[in-house]
Amino acid sequence: MKAIVDVGKCSGHARCVAVAPHVFVLNSDGYNERAINPVPAGHEVEGRRGARACPERAIRIVEDGEEAEAGR
Amino acid sequence: MSGGCPSRPDIAPDMVRRWDLARETEAVGCPFVAASKLHDGPDIFFNLSDDLRNVDGGSWIVTRADLQREVLQKSELFSSRGISGFSAILGESWPLMPVELDAPDHMRYRKLINPLFSPRRMDEIEAGVRESAIELIEAVRHRGGCEFMTAYARELPVNVFLRLMGLPLAEVDTFRKWEDEMMHSDDVAVRAGAAHALKAYLLDIIGRRRAEPTDDLISHLVTATLDDRPLDDDAVLGLCFFLYIAGLDTVAATLSFIFATLAEQPDLQNRLRSTPAEIPEAVEELIRAFGTVVTSRYLTEDTVFHGVAMRKGDRVITPLGVASRDPAEYEDANTLNIDRLSTRNISFGAGPHRCIGSHLARREITLTLEEWLARIPEFRLAPNGKPVPNVVTVWGHDTLQLEW
């Protein structure tokens, strides 16, 4: 499973890291720098919750077998 | 309803309303319940009422959470220039920084102060904030009750501002007085007088920190550089003024709804008192339910936004408390439910201007609940203790009489 972060859309709510500290990483400004991909085994539920927590809707989850169309 | 807007014949009459939030709030006792009724109507309408600082004969009001998010994210179309009108109080015209700046200047200044408000930085200052909170709570603990807004909700944020700025805590009464006069006085001369006094005070400190920097926020600003040049006094002043104004009423207002709710819901209050580990998640639902800020933008060009033709210069208001109660976003939106699966919200705004103090506000609210519930027994509203909230600017209770 992958978490695709649109870092251009991130505005630093930092809810992703509050909910999913094993999946997302903040930079020194407190904005999402990247997701740890693939999402570490055992943290898939956490990753989905972290993505859902984003007020900007800047995070997309790509399940195994799905194609990542864009982003990184 | 009305027969349209005479000055704007381009707007279809069924898009024009006269939504008077103060009157609606008076009728139902709660601005959020009043606001939620907007979701029975159009997603966007043109409002003719005088409230919501609606001065130019009408403004667009965007009701739906997803549309508000889009307005706030599309900052090139929806400009922040002049949204606060604050410096006009002083008869001046500098922007509050960075809240009234647009791209690209906005992000340049924002990046200067982002690290000072990051979650990591908040970890470092939390102990000091908690100390202020405990001191205020201990002062009322054995009194059997208090007027919560004066004793705590307005006091804590001023303490926090002084700590952030590196100003002496002994100045708290002076800064509270200035805040009260600037933000709440009906008298223009009183507002301007307080703003000038604060400006003079800050300019003096800015000068002293330039001469002898310490590790506080003002020192950080006076030693920072933008394009290899130090910030001038106007820029530092604009940033300091904004941080002062932005963090006081908003936190106090949010706490006023939270404490009124806890006073009225002893089961919730006692659940959080007995399981404090649930407080941080509960705070997210409380913030979801109580978006107290009404912000706005100005159109930079003629546009059609979700089928609505808007003109360059039109004001677009996004009352975040209306998004708080959007049934398309939240099941049973008017019910507070700390077990809600998703509390994702835009109570701190969205897009590039997302409230820079959001992480600080969360800490203030969370540690307030932790320390208050650990020290004060079950509390309730005093008889007639909860007046109808004030919705002139930030939505909140002016007073809240609690007893225990």
Q: Any overview of this molecule?
A:
- The complex is a heterodimer of chains A (about 70) and B (about 400).
- In chain A, strand 2 and strand 3 (about 30-35) form a beta hairpin.
- Chain A has helices spanning about 15-20, 45-50; strands at about 1-5, 25, 30-35, 60.
- Chain A has about 70 residues and is an alpha+beta fold.
- Chain A has a single domain (about 1-60), classed as Alpha-Beta Plaits (2-Layer Sandwich), CATH 3.30.70.20.
- In chain A, about 20% of the residues lie in helices and about 20% in strands.
- In chain A, the strands form two sheets. Chain A has a two-stranded antiparallel sheet. In chain A, strands 2-3 form a two-stranded antiparallel sheet.
- By secondary structure, chain B is of the alpha+beta class.
- Chain B has a single domain, classed as Cytochrome p450.
- Chain B is built from 16 helices and 13 strands.
- Chain B has helices at about 20-30, 30-35, 65-75, 105-115, 120-140, 150-155, 155-165, 170-185, 190-210, 215-225, 235-245, 250-265, 265-275, 280-290, 320-325, 360-375, and strands at about 15, 45, 60, 80, 145, 225, 230, 295-300, 305, 310, 315-320, 380, 400-404.
- In chain B, a hairpin with a 2-residue loop joins strand 6 and strand 7.
- Chain B is globular and about 60 Å long.
- Classes of the chains: A alpha+beta (about 70), B alpha+beta (about 400).
- At the A-B interface, helix 1 of A face helix 5 of B.
- Chain B: This is Cytochrome P450.
- Chain B: Keywords: Heme, Iron, Metal-binding, Monooxygenase, Oxidoreductase.
- Chain B: It comes from Sphingopyxis granuli.
- Chain B: Pfam families: p450.
- Chain B: InterPro entries: Cyt_P450, Cyt_P450_B, Cyt_P450_CS, Cyt_P450_sf.
Oligomer: heterodimer
Strand order of the largest sheet of chain B: 1-2-3-11-8-4
Structural class of chain A: alpha+beta
Largest sheet of chain A: 2 strands, antiparallel
Given helix and strand content, the structural type of chain B is: alpha+beta
Spatial order of strands in the largest sheet of chain A: 1-4
Classify the beta-strand content of chain A into a percent band.
Answer: 15-25%
Strand content bin of chain B: 5-15%
Number of domains of chain A: 1
What is the CATH domain class of chain A? Alpha Beta
Query: So what's the overall shape of chain B?
Result: globular
Biggest interface between chains: A-B, 19 and 22 residues
Ends distance of chain A: 13 Å
Question: What is the CATH architecture descriptor of chain A?
Answer: 2-Layer Sandwich
H/I helix tally of chain A: 2
Keywords (chain B): Heme, Iron, Metal-binding, Monooxygenase, Oxidoreductase
Protein name (chain B): Cytochrome P450
Family (chain B): Belongs to the cytochrome P450 family.
GO molecular function, one term (chain B): heme binding
